Amino acid sequence: MKKILVALCAVASALCAFSQTQAEKDAKRAEEIRQRADRLYSGLNVERDVVYKKFNGKDVTMDIILPREREFEGGAPIIVNIHGGGWNGGDRYHVGGRHAKELCDMGIAIATISYTFAEDGKTDVSNCIVDVKDALRFLAKNSKKYGIDPNRMMTTGHSAGGHLSLMAALAPNDKFLGDPSLEKYDPKVVCVAAFAPAVSFVNPEADYKGTVSYSANCFARLMGGTAEEVAAFKRECKTNAYEFLKAKNPDDKRLKLAEAASPITYLSKNSCPILIFHGSKDDLVSYKASKLMAKKAGEVGANLIYIEVAGADHGLGGAKIPQTEEEKAAKIQRFEEISVSKADQGKIKDLFALKYLLEGAKPLKK
Known about the structure:
Elements: H1 2-41, E1 46-55, E2 58-65, E3 76-82, H2 97-105, E4 109-113, H3 125-141, H4 143-146, E5 148-158, H5 160-170, E6 189-195, H6 216-223, H7 227-236, H8 241-248, H9 253-260, E7 274-279, H10 287-300, E8 304-309, E9 320-321, H11 325-330, E10 334-335, H12 342-358
Parallel strand pairs: 3-4, 3-5, 5-6, 6-7, 7-8
Antiparallel strand pairs: 1-2, 2-4, 9-10
């Protein structure tokens, strides 16, 4: 008995040590994020940790970077940045610095938002979409408070953030309703710029192995269901997730969610102008689907600019070139030359943003 008690005490001590270590890791990460945010926002006029809604009792927040001087009648046009991270990770602290100051000096505001993550059997991609739609509704509701123009919004993001940016811009405002206090507000997105976005979960012909829309693991998590349903789907599906589910049960509710969560579903001649960058070597999100969306845009008369970055990976940098033995020894990594550099991608996005955010805007008489 004594030996058992000693063993149990040892296990308890180990668990306690692990818990403390994890708590310390969490605290360290929180501090690193705070310091990164402090650096990003240094010298800027920022409203930090603005609560735009609550979900399951938790605050859902954003930061708003505002011009110091009002430049336009009706308030400042605003760019809403939506971070990536697989719909279940990442953070909003990637916007600020000199670029944000330059935009603010031109009279343009920036919001960078957090949102509810999609977790196995608990939440799904619709929760992410509802939050980003609510973020825009919140900004419209509080436009006078923050001095922004609710009719001059742009959404932008990379990867999952690119997908959510397109959903925020293209899905009708009466869909993906969330906070009842925000439902009546109707913000106007005048343009959207998406980098390596997931644009469709329902076009197997434009998919390939390894992508988030092909993979049973990601598809199951994003489209929800109980934890048991998610686990069963992962075990059973060995091919394109949507195709498999449709063949197995054409009435499965997750099929409807997959369609509703696909930006390509909402594309029409009335869609706001769209800019999409996608790398031809993206092995995580289908660039073929983005090409398909560009093709559909041409068919329906939508204003969509698609820029395929030759040789670029998911991060829109150059794809890795196999290393020689000498390079491996020296730890040298080479990448393929890309058709549009990261710097030029940013410049193109900025020109796109300025064209539509400032088009017809009336400067304030001073």
